[in-house]
Design brief:
single chain, Rossmann fold, 10 helices, 6 strands
């Protein structure tokens, strides 16, 4: 069996295959890049109709990245998937506290998830940053609560938690009440690879 082995060629061909699935949507070139990265990461063209991008999201995200912002993640899988070398070129870094022993203690004592405790710990630092949530709906709910109760305003929220308990609801609430730009997907789909791919799509636009 013959198959492609050139990484760049594989990616180019993948984007060519994805392109027809987006032909019926009125998307800007930048939005196409985000849609394509998400679909590529999921291997699922059915993502196309459920992706939601706030009108200011791409501009705000790219502006924050070029200014050297930090990216705060709910889980290590998101942090691992983000192109940290590319991010570092602009002075940025990726932060995650899900595995921190102190966060685990706080979560247990307060009867909340570790991702919620982590976002609470990050709260003062979220202003002007990018929040990338791919796994925990509770983390997204917590960020929305922080914005409701404090003047903290991230530059962009990439909120794509996956699952059947709270995932759909957290993303619907993000779309309904977020005072800042966001990128999300409707329904139960999402996940850490989608959050990382969305972040990388913005990083690769910076050229």
């Amino acid at each position: 069996m013959e198959f492609m082995t050139d990484p760049a060629g594989i990616e180019t061909r993948s984007m060519e295959i994805i392109a027809p699935y987006l032909a019926g949507y009125k998307l800007s070139p930048e939005e196409i890049k985000v849609y394509s990265r998400i679909i590529h990461a999921a291997g699922d063209p059915e993502y196309a109709p459920i992706i939601r991008i706030h009108p200011d999201a791409i501009r705000a995200g790219c502006q924050a990245l070029t200014s050297g912002c930090k990216i705060y993640c709910d889980v290590e899988m998101v942090r691992t998937g983000i192109n940290k070398k590319r991010l570092a070129e602009y002075g940025g870094s990726v932060e995650c506290l899900i595995a921190d022993p102190e966060i685990a203690k706080i979560a247990k004592a307060q009867g909340i998830t570790r991702s919620m405790a982590a976002m609470r710990a990050f709260a003062p630092q979220l202003d002007g940053a990018i929040v990338a949530i791919g796994n925990a709906p509770t983390a997204l709910f917590e960020v929305l609560t922080i914005m409701k109760e404090t003047p903290v305003r991230p530059a962009l929220i990439i909120g794509v938690p996956v699952g059947f308990v709270g995932a759909c609801e957290s993303k619907d609430l993000l779309s309904e009440i977020s005072p800042v730009p966001y990128i999300t997907v409707q329904g139960n789909k999402g996940g850490s690879p989608i959050a990382a791919a969305t972040t990388n799509a913005l990083l690769y636009m910076l050229d």
